[in-house]
Amino acid sequence: MEIQEDKGKTVAIISYITLIGLIIAFVMHSDEKNKSELGAFHIRQSLGISVTAIALSIAQFIFVFIPIIGWIINAAISLSLVGLVVFWILGLIAAINQEKKEVPLIGGFYQNLFSGIN
Fold first, then answer.
1. Closest C-alpha to 47, from 15, 79, 71, 76
2. Average pLDDT of the chain to the nearest whole number
3. What is the pLDDT of residue 6?
4. Is residue 54 domain-resident?
5. pLDDT classification of 2: cutoffs 50, 70, 90
């Protein structure tokens, strides 16, 4: 019995393995033989999580220099970053299982925002 793997599964999984993995997945996906809906879906999810994490990290760097209020905001951003790690894990698990499940709260937004990635 031969196990047949969807060509998009590899692209989907690689897209969650660091920012370099996301770039590699995007390049792989641009090749016609690796193009799939599953791959595009997870590239959009991973790109959204990465962009959000970078934006929150920049905001965190700025707010750390503001006494009291900035530190409180910084703590909230830290909790948000922990939440993004959970979303990243959920996305990776969905990619491994070949499911097109949006990450909670923000997944649909990313699918619309990055809809140009087909």
1. 15
2. 91
3. 66
4. yes
5. very low
Number of domains in the chain: 1
Indicate the helix (H) or strand (E) that contains 47: helix 37-63
Residue 41, domain extent: 7-113
- Residue 5, classed as helix, strand or coil, is coil
Over residues 10-50, the pLDDT tens digits come to 999 999 998 999 999 999 998 888 789 999 999 999 999 99
| Both structure tokens of 41 | 């879906």
Asked whether 77 and 63 are in contact (CB, 8 A), the reply is yes
Instruction: With respect to residue 66, please indicate whether it lies within any of the assigned structural domains.
Output: yes
Q: Provide the whole-model pTM.
A: 0.87
Q: Is 118 a domain residue?
A: no
Question: Which residue type does 115 have?
Answer: S
